[in-house]
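Something for you to look into today, if you have time. Could you write out one complete protein record for me, on any chain you like? The space below this message is yours for that.
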Amino acid sequence: MKLVRFVGNGEVRIGALVDEQIVDIGVALTDYAASNSVDISAFGPGLVYGGGSMRAFLTAGLHTNTVIRDAVAAAITKGGSEPLLSPADSIELLAPIDDPQKLICIGQNYKDHCEEQNQPIPERAIIFTKFATCIAAPGQPIVLPDISEQVDYEAELAFVVGKRAKKVSEADAPAYIAGYMCLNDVSARDIQMHPAEKQWIRGKSPDTFAPIGPALVTSDEIPDPHNLDISLTLNGFEMQKSNTSNLIFGINYLLSYLSLSITLEPGDIVTTGTPGGVGVFRNPQVFLKEGDVVDVIISRIGTLTNPVIHE
């Protein structure tokens, strides 16, 4: 499924994006239960009818629940009208997850990105963090802060943890991944790289500096996350282009490696690094400015679009 969050009838709700239509999962489940005499009392109204917490949805394992998947399929087959079925372009999508306990980032994880900055291939994964206040929804503006004049873009594939993971083997790692999203690791380079500061976390964590979406695509929809085309366009011009086969540290390795020292929880986001082509290492350099539009495009996942404004 492609899971999304949106506002319906004044509530934040969870839906499934299917062929450019959004199915309200709560409504679809109610309709399916009535038609098939299915007891859905165990699902709880806060998970699928209101509240709209994707973290709670994942914690309950609903992203793999066959009844919910059957209800969504039945809604698509039956057809209908709002709020059961709505055209995706008529609904404002929210960030697929807005309340992760952790947003963990991996630096210098594509060979060409290391080469463009004359850095050696890292022997171990480089880890830093962003915060939930960085998260921006599809279509929400990236806000350029007054404290920076060199804000850059970074197209990335992010994975989302589906169940608690501690000391997980690389072989078992896929069972702990709920799904995948596009993420833009927006970065204030003049803070991150200032010789007197070099603050990666401060430079990468201003508000809106982690747009995500447009959907959380569950793992069963992505048979091989290490063979996805990834690109970024700025005002329609292609700035980055690669494939996740070029990751230095793969997704299963990263989940296992992180879980050796950090307990990963459902809804935690791990973003896996960016390929070459970022603005700071271009000649001439390219930084975001008010009026720009940035698209992160990953095959099988979708396009994450965000305009740019100044604070």
User: Anything to note?
Assistant: The two ends are 36 Å apart (CA to CA). DSSP finds eight helices and 19 strands in the chain.
